[in-house]
Amino acid sequence: MPDTSPDTLPTGSPVVESLRARLLTDLGRILPRGHRSWTALDFPMHFNCGDSALHLGLEAAARSAAVPVERILDRRSYDAALLSRDSLPLSMAGGTWGGLYPTHHEHRLKFLRDTKGRPAVQLPQSIEHVDEHHREELRRAVGEHGSFIFLVRDQRSFEIAQRDYDCEVHLVPDLAFALGPLRRNPAVEPLVVQARTDKEAGGVEGFPSTFDWVQAPPRSRSALGLKVAARLNRLQRRAPGRATAAAARESMRFLARANLDRATALLSRGERVVTDRLHGHVISTLLGIPHVVVNDKFGKVRALHETWLAQDPTSAFAATWTEVPDALAQLSTRP
Q1: For the whole model, what pTM was predicted?
Q2: Cα 330 to the chain's mean position, in Å?
Q3: What is the tens place of the pLDDT at every residue in 191-205?
Q4: Considering only CA atoms, which of 86, 76, 74, 148 is closest in space to residue 114?
């Protein structure tokens, strides 16, 4: 994990500390008590560094609450039989609610059916309903659950959830803020540009040299971690005992830490950053790197920025890539 000792905290850490404190206070107030552990579901078994930051945020929240994470499952290892009655099931945070990613959607419906009538938590999500069919499937599953707690991470999603879902709904900061301020590496370039390469990309313009973090070098710690974690994770359904759970859990934590370290290295290369990834924005904020965040195709970046970070001096918002030069100029005028 990046160093977060007091003498290495980034500029802007008061904003991060404020959001971290609010998040941990909110989770302490909202999450049901009386469970001896937590079970983390829908673990990100891939190279996306932002999703890894969310899992590590969950681990940080668990440490703050003095509750162990007993088991970590992804969509392949998930089995209702692995959900202990005295462990609180929590579905991973992110931007997958609403049908945009079909495998996440189907997993979420199964999770809601399997936990019907017992406390279950959706960690902070952005909502983007792709159509009425997916919205209605989720609305019905939540309505039939009876004990579901829905956390969202921006005001727009909060309003949608309150309107569409018959359950307990709370607005809290993005789960990655539980990590608190992180230490950046020394910059080696004036500017680095991160541009999405997936279905949420808005279309980068004017920057011929960009990077994304959904792939990793073959011999990197991320690549090694994914190989080991995937193999141990598959064993959980065949050998569900504590030893297998512990081995899988530690391998998945290694993968998540390797991905966060890779994100830190990529973003730290620039004295300033331009990114259209929501967690490019969040992790740059945690690292104290001045940056411009560009809206994504569906508006979840704008929604999160306006809810929590609009007044943060380390970042400026650009609605489109054509607005980036003006946003960079705006950054340069700040102390």
Answers
A1: 0.94
A2: 28
A3: 999 998 877 666 676
A4: 148
Residue 208 and residue 196: Cα distance in Å, rounded?
Answer: 13
93 domain residue, yes or no = yes
Q: Is residue 234 part of a domain?
A: no
Question: What is the distance between the alpha carbons of residues 10 and 289, in angstroms, rounded to a whole number?
Answer: 8
Domain tally, the chain: 2
Q: Give me the amino acid identity at 44.
A: P
- Does residue 96 sit in the same domain as residue 200? no
DSSP 3-state of 32: coil
Residue 179 per-residue DSSP state: G
Separation CA 58–CA 89 (nearest Å): 12
Q: Could you tell me whether strands 69-72 and 87-91 are parallel, antiparallel, or unpaired per DSSP bridges?
A: unpaired
CA distances from 256 to 123, 148, 192, 253 (A): 17, 27, 23, 5
Determine the structural domain holding residue 298 and report its residue range.
Answer: 183-218+257-332
Interatomic CA distance for residues 202 and 208, integer angstroms: 15
Last residue of a domain, one of 147, 178, 209: 178
**What's the rounded Cα separation, in Å, for the pair 245 and 252?**
11
Residue 157 lies in a domain: yes
Name the β-bridge partners of 294.
318
Contact call for residues 300 and 95 (beta carbons, < 8 A): yes
**pLDDT band at 334; cut points 50, 70, 90:** confident
Q: Which residues pair with 169 in a beta bridge?
A: 150
Place of tokens 């462990």: 87
**Own/partner pairs, 23-28, CB within 8 angstroms, 24+ separation:** 23/61, 23/172, 23/173, 23/174, 23/175, 23/177, 23/178, 24/61, 24/64, 24/65, 24/178, 26/170, 26/172, 26/173, 27/61, 27/64, 27/65, 27/172, 27/178, 28/64, 28/65
In a domain, 247, yes or no: no
What is the C-alpha separation between 159 and 181, in angstroms, rounded? 29
**pLDDT above 70 covers what percent of the chain?**
94
Instruction: Indicate whether 11 pLDDT > 60.
Output: no
